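Pipeline run #58 for the internal structure catalog. This entry was flagged by the ingest filter as a single-chain record with no existing model, so it goes straight to prediction. Upstream metadata was stripped on purpose; only the residue string is passed forward. Reviewer on rotation: M.T. Logging verbosity set to normal.
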Amino acid sequence: MARLIEVQITPHGPTELTVGVGDVLQFSASGGRTRSGPIQMSGPYRSSVVGDNGEVLTPAGPPNVVLFLCGGQGRGTIEVVTGDPWRSPKTTVINIQIHK
């Protein structure tokens, strides 16, 4: 069964991940891109919640979530952009090994 994997960007990693086909990687980030491999990015999104009355509440601010779908076996590389996207973005490169 595929997994939704929340990945934390920290000063010391991760720079390499090993995941399965169909896994989705979730990052608290303002952007990103796929450099190579069978990985598809979705987003960026702004996280929101549903209130007691059914209304969707979305805070003001930049996007804060990106998702990457690991769609096939192989190796790939992604870039994840964190920080303020207009003033001080930081790009982290992560190499991903995808297995069956």
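catalog note: The chain is about 0% helix and 55% strand.
catalog note: The mean pLDDT is 95.
status: ready for reviewer M.T.
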